[in-house]
Write a structure and sequence with these properties.
17 strands, Rossmann fold, alpha/beta, SH3 type barrels, 6-stranded antiparallel β-barrel, 5-stranded parallel beta sheet, 367 residues, Elongation Factor Tu (Ef-tu), domain 3, 3 domains, 8 helices
Amino acid sequence: MSRKGKVLVAMSGGIDSTVTALMLNQEGYEVVGITMKTWDYTASGGSKKETGCCNLDSFNDARMAAVQHGFAHYILDIREEFGDFVIENFVDEYLAGRTPNPCVLCNTHIKWRALLKRADALGCEFIATGHYAKIRQHDNGRFVVSKAIDDTKDQSYVLWGLQQDLLSRTLLPLGPYRKTAIRQMAHDFGYPELAKKHESYEICFVPDNDYRGFLKRKVEGLEEKVAGGNFIDKNGKILGQHKGYPFYTIGQRKGLDIAMGRPVFVTRIDPENNTVVLGDEEDLDQNEMMVSKLNLIKYDAISEGMEAVTKIRYKDQGALSNLYPYHGQMKVRFYENVKGIAPGQSAVFYEGDDVLGGGIIQRGELV
């Protein structure tokens, strides 16, 4: 029996999850490694070689590290559950004119729940991943997600959906370290090749990074169903024809294939009328939005007008705002205009380095 307890570690075969497992093993935890197969890339019809976390090489790398350090390793096939939920939502959101973030959905509803279920079956008190973030218990008893030390790698944004029962049993060992230190640890553990291993930032089931092609392959006859719609300006004037509203995102400038004599941007998508609204860069500016499907982390409630820094996308630096609970949703008013609020993306609220909570952006204006 380990003096620190038994922990189930999600191992993708990459540097971060491998070092996570080896760190915890060295610290005295009884480690069990698990690699989750979420997606069969050949089923997507993509044109490039399979990469990322769901290929045989990654599975073998994870298993080899476990074998060499004397702890158990399992492969968990969650393709059916993943596909039914994450991929169907991904397609549905684009067809609804929104821009989804499947990684948040996967973390919240699939990976962590699958890990916890298997942890219980294996008698593990904890689960652990290689995410760059921190978890601690607040004075009020709630478990809080905080930013990692390395702000260039911080992943707290994608963890806003984790509920208290998940956070209370999750270990995130990489939060206090910079990526350079993790690379050195990989070398010290005897895996210098991991420090050189390519890191994928693509969606795992769209590893060629062509979401438009993925939608076309998943939805039979999609191009015919959505072709022939109009580009319009904010006053409704027809500017030209687009190739199908699901193939555009808010803030997009390149690839519009329309000559306006000046840069124009996608400012709104209207699936009901199959129109895409184009405008100038300043037309992307807004100072308020509505957020739904909330998950609160640091506190069990948000006070009226509470100040927070709100991020509207993963790489966003965040902007000062006030939060107003509204019938199970959250009104967010920014102190200054922010650019490119995109329905379907996650909005995450911060108090200092702590995640207050988050939700899904519904629209960029209030009712």
